[in-house]
Write a structure and sequence with these properties.
With 230 residues, this protein is mostly beta strands. It is 6% helix and 63% strand. It is globular.
Length: 230
């Protein structure tokens, strides 16, 4: 954990925008659409819709994809979620997902007095500190969090974040100056099993443009469309 804190501290020094209220970067956004690819083939989508009113930011997510291996369904996901922020702070989260015909869910509310999230999830029921982040690819706050909450099931996961390099990322005919990070995620701090994700963050818009990882194939989430309110 000490190593992770040092890494995150260095990220704060290199990228000072991380110290600001992160969801404020998204109050002018309308839509972020991502294609979901496996082994270079599009298999579905991940779409975030944003709505701001007064001091609230509401983010709705739709995800749908089906990965097959030799004609057999390997992983089929169909889900939706709603996040509600007040003055940049998450106060409520709800998700319902069907994964390979199995129902998963996460019902989260903020207890302001206890400064904790009360979670009723398919894999976890209990309380977690209110500084913990619900993991989603629209929010670059994931790059500074030592712990995240699974948006599908409510279970906590621990992570280490590493800055890798500056990189020019080409999406279709556009080139973006990005910062590339690696996230190493575990269910427990000492768990030998881990998941590794590569993240490309657009230096200008602070939007995560691409995510890649390997699990029964090579997976990519790539932004295909961003719409803003003017």
């Amino acid at each position: 954990m000490k190593k992770t804190k040092i890494i995150l501290f260095l990220i704060f020094l290199i990228y000072p925008f991380f110290s600001y209220p992160h969801v404020n970067h998204y109050d002018k956004l309308k839509i972020i659409e991502m294609d979901v690819l496996r082994n270079g083939k599009k298999i579905g989508y991940n779409k975030y819709s944003f709505k701001s009113r007064n001091n609230l930011l509401i983010v709705k997510n739709e995800i749908n994809f089906a990965a097959k291996l030799m004609g057999i369904n390997l992983l089929v996901v169909n889900g939706s979620s709603t996040e509600t922020y007040r003055n940049g702070k998450l106060i409520k989260f709800n998700s319902d997902t069907i994964q390979n015909k199995k129902k998963k869910y996460n019902k989260l509310v903020l207890d302001e007095k206890k400064k904790s999230f009360e979670i009723n999830g398919s894999s976890f029921k209990g309380a977690l500190p209110s500084f913990v982040l619900v993991g989603n690819w629209w929010n670059h706050s994931i790059l500074q969090s030592e712990m995240i909450i699974s948006p599908l099931s409510g279970s906590p996961k621990f992570q280490e974040v590493y800055f890798l390099s500056k990189e020019i990322l080409k999406i279709k005919n556009n080139n973006y100056v990005t910062s590339k990070f690696k996230i190493i995620m575990k269910k427990n701090i000492d768990d030998k099993k881990k998941e590794e994700f590569n993240i490309w963050l657009d230096d200008k818009s602070k939007i995560i443009l691409k995510v890649s990882y390997s699990k029964f194939g090579n997976w990519e989430y790539i932004v295909k469309n961003v719409e803003k309110f003017y």
